Amino acid sequence: MNDLTDAQLVRLAAQPGPHREAAFEALVRRHAGRVHRVAAGTVGAGAADDVVQEVFISVERHLGGFRGEAQFTTWLHRVTLNACHKALAVRRHLPLEDAPEPVAPHNPVQAGEQADLRERLAWAMRQLPPEQRDVLTLRELSGLDYAEIAEVLGLELGTVKSRLNRGRAALRTLLSGIGVTP
């Protein structure tokens, strides 16, 4: 299954048959990391696992309706952003116990500083308007280019660029206001 393209896996996973489950699992393995990065950057590391689970539940339910007019990854990013928006609407603020695990347990001071920085960044991202947060997440966390972001969000290229510029400026202001030098 790992040798198949996304389009081939989607076709197999969307139809009843002996390969349906294996094809869907291959899609999950291939894209879960990317979905998690987007979710963690949007809702915070503590809520990202729940969002990833919701994304793939939604993908499984609606895969039959995927028309293939866009790439699967484009559709998946849209589903991910929708799940992130839903999670943010339910949980406006993450509790401190949801802060990310320290990256370097052998250096508690550095690990604590990194966890604090990630939590501050997640807080600042949650303060942005959704349209700015979405373009920043897709560009900085997913690494999509401007044209791909435009396709995912259904926007003009100029709109993507201006939202990205405004989002970066707002994020810089928010971070500076809480003592983080971007």
TrEMBL record:
The keyword Secreted does not apply. The keyword Heme does not apply. Residues 122-171 form the RNA polymerase sigma factor 70 region 4 type domain. Keywords: DNA-binding, Sigma factor, Transcription, Transcription regulation. Pfam families: Sigma70_r2, Sigma70_r4_2. Residues 27-89 form the RNA polymerase sigma-70 region domain. NCBIfam families: sigma70-ECF. Belongs to the sigma-70 factor family. ECF subfamily. This is ECF RNA polymerase sigma factor SigE.
